[in-house]
Amino acid sequence: MTERLYYEDPSLFAFEAEVMDLVTVGNSVGVILNRTAFYPEGGGQPGDRGTVGKAKVHDTTLSPEGEIIHWVEAGSQVPDIGTSIVGKVNEIRRRDHCQQHSAQHLLSQAFARLFGWETVSFHLGSATSTIDLDVAEAEWDELLRAENLANSVVFNNEPCQTTIYHRKEDLPISLRLAGNADDGLPVATTLRVVSFGDYDATLCGGTHVSASGEIGLVKILSTEKSRGSLRLHFAAGERAASQFERYRSVLSELCKLHTTGRADIIDAAERTLVDNRRMHREIRRLRSELGALHADHLKHEAIALPGGVRLVVASVEGDASYLQHLVSKVGDDAIVLLAGTEGGNAHFVFCCPQELDLDCAGLLRTCLDPYGGGGGGSSCRAQGGGISAEKAPTVLRRAEEEVTKGLR
After folding, report:
1. Which of 165, 290, 294, 304 has the most C-beta neighbours closer than 10 Å?
2. Which residues contact 333 (CB under 8 A, 6 or more apart)?
3. Which residues pair with 222 in a beta bridge?
4. Are strands 3-4 and 35-36 parallel, antiparallel or unpaired?
5. Measured between alpha carbons, how far is 259 from 261 in angstroms, rounded to an integer?
6. Helix (H, G, I), strand (E, B) or coil at 319
7. Helix, strand or coil for residue 209?
8. Where do the domains of the chain lie, and which CATH numbers do they carry?
9. Strand locations in 272-395 (E)
């Protein structure tokens, strides 16, 4: 069984060891050592990375037999069985994981103390970490209370201690989640309790800071619902500082856009929203008036076909919704072939009276297929696009020719 040095000293990043075995799964090669400071993936915490000898380790996992496997990158110089090597854990990544995992303990205890909410699961991600709580929703002031309590423990710099128990019956009564002490544990194993002063004690096999002050800062970033639980995203330590800088940068850009200071940015943003809503209402009103005038012009320019049928053919500047608006204004007693161009793309709407023997959907496909466009609809109304605006006149000419030919 691999000796786990990270239990004795989470800040141990370099060590000597002997290669006991090599395992191969597909094209991946794993190295098993007699002792290691590499933490294997588990308990929501990713496995460590680093080097064993000259081989780069991209992941560390635990085998079903309890051996720690150091998976090396393809092309790395794999050490031979029986050789002595120096292992080096990626120090920056390990310290970050210690900060995030320790912060999770403080937050989980805060929610349990303040509101009786238990932690369902924890995941340490590459950018942010998450905690799932057994509650459907929470107010932001409740989250802030828990965050403040966790940070008070950080600022008190409570020592982090590890205690080993061999029987569940010996565990402290005050242990958080003590009822789950034997879940998933082998029969003959040790129970490892991680505590931060008198604030929190819980079963955990992960790596942690030596004192809560090393966490630096804990910040809850956002929440979302997840399978009936409340999932909150948080960051601690340098991650929290990076998140703050990201938010500061966004706030500074918003202040520049609104030409105002940080204290007034909310009022300025609200005024902008009000102005935008008013302008959108005015745009809709003017667009409606313009559509009515445009439709009158199209009806005046309509082509008279045999049988008293009118044909409206036009290419206009506008999106699909504007074309639909024009069609409604022109009326349903004419054949309408419209193309709308916007942003270099073309959109088409073809429609005709129901009593005419004309298939608008088929006509649209016939005209667009040669250019890779497409669309659909019914015999009396169809729409489509997917071609460049420069092809619109050609498509309309083809459509007009097909219509006039069919009605002769």
Report:
1. 294
2. 310, 353
3. 233
4. parallel
5. 7
6. coil
7. coil
8. 3-89 (2.40.30.130), 94-250 (3.30.980.10), 286-406 (3.10.310.40)
9. 303-305, 309-317, 334-342, 345-351, 374-377, 381-388
The 3-class SS string of 33-101 reads: ECEECCCCCECCECCCCEEECCEEEEEEEECCCCCEEEEECCCCCCCCCCCEEEEEECHHHHHHHHHHH
Q: How far apart are CA 128 and CA 236, in angstroms?
A: 9
* 175's tokens: 């242990």
Residue 188 has pLDDT above 70, yes or no: no
Q: For residues 262 and 269, is the Cβ–Cβ distance under 8 A?
A: no
d(CA 402, CA 268): 56
What pTM did the predictor assign? 0.71
Per-residue pLDDT tens digits for 325-340? 888 888 778 899 999 9
Q: Which amino acid is at 70?
A: H
Closest to 408 measured CA to CA, from 333, 355, 357: 357
Which 3 state secondary structure label does DSSP give 307? Answer: helix
Check residue 94 and give left, alpha or beta (phi > 0: left; psi -120 to 50: alpha): alpha
Cβ-contact 371, 395 below 8 angstroms: yes
- Give me the helix-helix angle, 392-406 and 360-368, nearest 10°: 140
DSSP string covering 141-152: HHHHHHHHHHHH
Query: How far is 384 from 224, CA to CA, in rounded Å?
Result: 38
Can you tell me the distance from the alpha carbon of 143 to that of 360, in angstroms, rounded to the nearest whole number?
58
Is there a contact between 2 and 36 (Cβ–Cβ < 8 Å)?
A: yes
Per-residue tokens: 405: 């030919």
- CA separation for the pair 210, 207 (Å, rounded): 10
